[in-house]
Design brief:
The chain is of the alpha+beta class. It has a single domain, classed as CBS-domain (Roll). Helices cover 44% and strands 16% of the residues. It has a three-stranded mixed beta sheet. Strands 4-5 form a two-stranded antiparallel ribbon.
C-alpha cells in the first residue's frame, strides 16, 4: 500500500528528507534559458502539463517562471508574450532547499511563503524540484498507510482492505 512506509510507533514520516521524495519522482526537470520568450516558456509548460519551468543559464539556476508570473507580469501588465523575455519577468532570488531538508520543513516554507515549487540544490547544483503536489502525495500515502494500520489493529483485517476501499471510491 503506497510507496512510502509508515510505522506508527516511530513517526519517521516527520523526519523524511526531500531526497526520499526526489527518488520517487521522474528525473526530468523542465527548464528554459533566460533569453527564451514567455511564449516559448509557456509552450514548454503546456506541452508537459506543468505549472512552472526553471530558468537555467548554462546549467546554473537563475530563476523560475510560473503561471503566476504569466498572470501578474504578462497579462496584468498587458505585455506581449512573443517578445517579452523570461529573464525580464521570472522570479529571481529564489529560496532553495537541500535534499536533506525535511518534508515538513519544506511544507512550512511552501505554505508560509506561498510557493508552488522549491528547487532542490546539492553542492551548488540543481538536484530537482519539489512541488506542493509532491508533498501532498507523500502525506496522502503516509495517512493511507496509517489508516490501514489502524484498520488492521481494530478489525484484525488486512490493512490493504482500506487501500482497496479507497481506490474503489475514487
Amino acid at each position: 500500500m503506497g510507496i512510502y512506509k509508515l510505522d506508527l510507533n516511530d513517526p519517521q514520516y516527520m523526519k523524511t528528507q526531500l531526497s526520499t521524495l526526489l527518488s520517487e519522482k521522474h528525473t526530468t526537470v523542465h527548464s528554459v534559458p533566460p533569453n527564451a520568450t514567455v511564449k516559448e516558456a509557456a509552450l514548454v509548460m503546456t506541452d508537459h502539463h506543468i505549472r512552472s519551468v526553471l530558468v537555467l543559464d548554462q546549467g546554473d539556476l537563475v530563476g523560475i517562471f510560473t503561471e503566476r508570473d504569466v498572470l501578474l507580469r504578462i497579462v496584468m501588465e498587458d505585455r506581449n508574450p512573443s517578445t517579452t523575455l523570461v529573464n525580464e519577468v521570472m522570479t529571481k532570488n529564489l529560496t532553495t532547499v537541500s535534499p536533506t531538508t525535511l518534508v515538513h520543513e519544506a511544507l512550512n516554507l511552501i505554505t508560509n511563503k506561498r510557493f508552488g515549487h522549491l528547487p532542490v540544490m546539492k553542492d551548488g547544483k540543481l538536484a530537482g524540484i519539489i512541488s506542493i503536489g509532491d508533498i501532498t502525495k507523500y502525506f496522502s500515502h503516509c495517512y493511507e498507510n496509517e489508516a490501514g494500520t489502524l484498520w488492521s489493529y481494530i478489525t484484525g483485517d488486512d490493512p490493504h482492505v482500506v487501500s482497496d476501499f479507497i481506490e474503489e471510491r475514487v
